[in-house]
Amino acid sequence: MFSSYQGEGASLPGSLMGRRQVFVRLAGCNLARGDMGTEGCVFCDSPGAKSERCKSASVEIIPGGGRERVRNPLDAEAVLDWILRLRTPDLHSVSVTGGEPLVQARFVGRLAGMVRSLGLRTYLETNGSLPREVSRVAGLFDYACVDIKDKSARAAEDWQALVELEVESASILKDAGCRTFCKTVVTSQTTPASIEAIATRVSELGLPLALQVVTPFGGLKPPSGRQLFSLTEAAAKHLQPEMLAVSIQAHRLLEFP
Predict the structure, then answer these.
(1) Which domain holds residue 100?
(2) Residue 131: which region, alpha, beta or left (left: phi > 0; alpha: psi -120 to 50)?
(3) Which end of the chain, N or C, is more open, meaning fewer C-beta atoms within 10 Å of its C-beta?
(4) Number of domains composing the chain
């Protein structure tokens, strides 16, 4: 748990890029543990994604200050107490992220309900592969970012089946009144055909799409400028320009978590 700025989402409706948040990052991810036949996304930057039973959690003592380890598992009341310790005058919302937070859907629902009962806004970041769990918590979130995985992410053996699950989750969140946008991480291996297929499904939902340039990691490379032009042009065959934007991990540039 830590205080930082939301660094993703560009300038799209539903995005909170640049807003101050308290982040609750949960361990575990169904894709990383192999539920869809692979070892998860090739660009995964969450070391805890494959560790659902962490013995301790890292928490900030004060916003931007030192951290300490506390024993896991923490219940929702303990997490809420840490959130309130990190509350600042410019706090916009509480982000629940992962890993894949909805691996722990019951906990997420309880925490989100408690956060909202205090008048704070809630933000969910999900890989969208668990629509049944999304339906359990959708009404408790004010904002959401749903990952639509590019084929080159290698997050599932059956990529199209994963996309359909993600689209279903995005639809559930939108219908629940949650301000939702979709995000696709793009690399030098992303193709215009893959992005056009994603944009087609996102446009049917009437939702915006952020093409997020991968942060170089483990040998992965971002698309070149020419490649990126081809990707946004492919997406624009189905999405209006105001519903499409390029995003980066701005918090990385600022050396925030």
Answers:
(1) 2-253
(2) alpha
(3) C
(4) 1
